[in-house]
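Ticket #4471: structure export looks truncated?
Reporter: QA, pipeline team
Priority: medium

Steps to reproduce: submit the single chain below to the structure queue and open the exported record.
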Amino acid sequence: MKIIISRKGFDSKTGKCESPIMPDGTLLSLPIPTNGCGNDSKYDDLTYKGIKYSELLNQINPKEKYNYCHVDPDIREGIRTVPSDWQPAFGQKDQAQGYLNNSGVETGDIFLFFGNYRRVKLVNGRYRFVRKSNDFYYHSPLQIIYGYLQIGRIIRSLEEIKRFHWHPHSAFTDSSNTLYIPTNRLSLIPSMKGYGTLSYREDRVLTMKDHPKATWNPLPFLFPEYVHGNRKNSAKKDGLYYAGQWQELVFDGSEDLLKWVKTILRESKSTTGIYSVAAPCGVEADEDLQDVEELHDLQEVDDMLEERVSEWKNDYIWQGRKLGREEGIALGREEGMTLGRKEGITLGREEGITLGREEGIVLGREEGIEMVLMDALETRFGVVPQAVSDSLATVTGTEVLRRLVRCAWQVASLEEFLKVLKNEKH
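Actual output as written to the record:
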């Protein structure tokens, strides 16, 4: 079994803002804008709890105008009127489909769909992005896994694809045009359907804490050596970063990877209550939070517990290691060097804890100033393009970064800031 991590929805270039994390924890993936060709939908035709996507977009990003969109993957039920023969599906073509073909993607493999998200809240009856809070995960732009589809059937016949007339790929005539239809049930968790969308939960966040959104947690099974094709980790310091405008990454399904997939896909009342409903300290909770639905199927509960027992140990070990790392670095404990090397968290402190602590302070200062700089740019000019974020990630030196922060508050436009940035880098 292979796992395909697939990027979908709005970003700073396509859509020019993040998709919203709604107050009830819904990860509402916004389909990308189009020119209205073929079977594209209108944002006016899509709704979330009675509000049209077009109105929601007008509230969270009023500077842009939106009309038509490409609803794909088509896996969220209830957002629009569909025919009686509707089926969930995901389409791909051209170079992206060529990569899937070359990677040997087949029935039984699982797509994990992720996108760029930021939390919204109601302010005077209108949704607004949350820009500040005491919790990194509550106000920052994040990349989050929001849905999945296990492949039950792969359709390459253009005539057969036309039968899925509600899907945008039914209008494409490219020879590479392909449609993926899900299984009835998810083989890893048979109590779940073969496709679906997920609510917010911290373990579904790919973004590494206190880092730009495209820098992921350094999960060992997601590193380049397990990816099909020529990929490298372009992270400047720590974390995992796959540069470029790629759509999919195909991973071989190792035991650890499949355990992780099962953990993030399984809905759990306890974890949902912690992460998708409760607001963090220092942030006022919204009025329309909803209760988490209880499980009524006792057999499903039994199945869940039986499978979870074998996973809890690894979950607690992982959480304990994470907490141990944070406490170990803070206290500078001598025995942390050995443990740190094993868990991949050494900061190059080969000369000892003292030198490592000094280097960590320098790196931490730079990262902190980078976050202040990004906040300044977003406050002045709105959503910052990914290319600008990538360029800033190559800047080193606290004095240079401080000058750029002052510049961000003084220049009249983002273009003027980019000129200053170019001069600083040279």
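Status: closed, not a bug. The export was complete when the record was re-opened. Leaving a note from the reviewer for reference: The chain has three domains: 2-277, 298-342, 353-425.
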